[in-house]
Design brief:
By secondary structure, this protein is mostly helical. 51% of the residues lie in helices and 8% in strands. The chain has two domains: 89 residues; 102 residues, Helicase, Ruva Protein, domain 3, CATH 1.10.8. The protein has a three-stranded parallel beta sheet with strand order 1-2-3, covered by helices on one side.
Length: 212
């Protein structure tokens, strides 16, 4: 059993190490508020030495995103602590302590994909008869990618007419000419997101681009 746990979403720009470290301490339920980065790192180091913890760093692009916040040697100096890092690039993590277990996440199978798609598109266990066939085709076009299934499901949730679903399927089949490899998961996800983006209103597109 672990004494404490935390989840850290890695930001591409790097983020603020002090804020991230303070967030970890909050998740560890440490009430003291550190004054600066030096103090927060000392508090983290002390906590990790005294507690068996599990830390999850999501979407890691570089090992420094972890080590700038929690030095890996300090983490594994504690007894039985575990670090879980998710990444699209296995080379991003060069050193993770004494014992490393690598798990490759496969794309979802068709049955699981269908369940996820239905959850986000219709909110019930089964699709109505008129949407079953086109729903299966949309799921296959999403290539077992959870984000794609969620985005398409959410988009079609407010458009439950057969014609709307068929139009969405045709757009998926046509695809888009983009730089990169069509077999790459990033390409597949972008193709799905583009269908959803194209169907936004002008004001909504403007808001989306401002956020990006």
């Amino acid at each position: 059993m672990y004494n404490a746990s935390c989840f850290v979403e890695c930001i591409e720009s790097g983020g603020d190490c002090y804020i991230t470290s303070c967030n970890i301490l909050e998740q560890f339920k440490v009430k003291s508020k550190p004054k600066d980065i030096k103090e927060v790192q000392e508090m983290l180091k002390s906590f990790l030495k005294e507690n068996k913890t599990i830390l999850v760093f999501d979407n890691v692009k570089n090992q420094s995103q972890i080590e700038d916040v929690v030095p890996i040697d300090d983490l594994f100096a504690s007894n039985g602590s575990t670090l879980i890092a998710t990444t699209r690039d296995s080379k991003a993590i060069k050193y993770c302590g004494k014992e490393v277990h690598k798990v490759n996440i496969e794309e979802l199978d068709e049955e699981t994909s269908m369940k996820l798609f239905i959850t986000h598109s219709y909110g019930q266990e089964n699709l109505p008869n008129e949407l079953i066939e086109v729903g299966k085709k949309i799921v296959r076009a999403c290539n077992g990618l959870p984000l794609s299934l969620k985005v398409m499901g959410a988009f079609l949730r407010k458009n439950k007419r057969l014609r709307c679903w068929e139009q969405a399927l045709q757009k998926l089949k046509r695809g888009r000419e983009l730089d990169g490899d069509e077999n790459n998961s990033n390409y597949k996800i972008w193709k799905i997101l583009r269908v959803s983006f194209d169907n936004l209103k002008v004001e909504e597109k403007s808001m989306f681009l401002d956020i990006c």
